Amino acid sequence: MRITALLLAVLSLPASAAEPAAFGYYLHGSAANAVPAQSPEHGGALLAGGGNEVDAAYGWLAEQARGGDLVVLRARGEDQYNPYFAQFGKLDSVETLVVGSREAANDPFVAKRVLNADALFIAGGDQANYINFWKGTALGDAIEALLRRRVAIGGTSAGLAVQGQYDFAALNDTISTEEALKNPYQPKLTLDSGFITAPGLAHTITDSHFAERDRMGRLMAFMARLIVDGKEPAGRLRAIGIDPATTLVVEGDKARVVGEGAVYFLNANGNPADCRPGQPLRFEGVSVVRLKNGDYFDLKAWKAGEGQPLHYRVSTADGRVWSDRADGGVY
């Protein structure tokens, strides 16, 4: 049976709850579980910086399902992505699960649909919901199982934020560069780890809407906190910022930029000079590699491949961010 854009009000009774857990389920295509003839050779990831979708990159994610089932996860919203992904063809189904509570994330139906996915996409929204509702649940376990099976995973904006080993969790709302640099320990700067680590993103934190929302400084603040708090040594920590309407397509250790803007790869060359509660951050000489459409990056070696990379270093002190470029620009 084939169903197009059908919302099922799925209710079930979790063993630990007195009230049923409600979630949204939208299906485009076949309700049966398709099993692709071939298993993926290596894990893959689609990292999107928010804004408009990049058809070539999102189509790549659809191809990774190998004719099977692509599942979209979100905590709010409806099925906008079902017809979008379906247009790329050769998919048995596109399914959207709207999972807005821990009870729903522990529902067996939710976990089973995710476990049956042949590609997974996490929509934008609020990453605090994803961490609060999904981490440490049956849904979270199902995502980890997909990663072990080398199923490709994608995400945009908040869906990008949770793909690195470390996440800006936004548990106390978002934070601007100005706020983060003024006090890197202010309550809005909440970091998390242990939820999802997409292929190639160990020791890594990500950020989206990068140049558009002037997020270089706040990403540097995230890095400084992870170093000073003992989560990662400076020499191993990595960070990736992605512009809107821009994606990074990861296949194995290799990544390529697809889209209108740029992707920024950061690594520290030493510890922050000053990262204390209530004091402006001072962090000098952070290396940046800026890549644009068609450029490649080796995530394992952490160096640019084919393309025209721009190399420079950024620093911050007294709430200001600058670079060693002739124009002092940071993007």
TrEMBL record:
Record Pfam families: Peptidase_S51 (PF03575)
Database matches in CDD domains: GAT1_cyanophycinase
Keywords: Hydrolase, Protease, Serine protease, Signal
GO biological process, any: proteolysis
Signal peptide: 1-17
InterPro entries: Class_I_gatase-like (IPR029062), Peptidase_S51 (IPR005320)
Domain of life: Bacteria
Molecular function via GO: serine-type peptidase activity
Family of the protein in this entry: Belongs to the peptidase S51 family.
Protein name, entry field: Cyanophycinase
Organism: Arenimonas maotaiensis
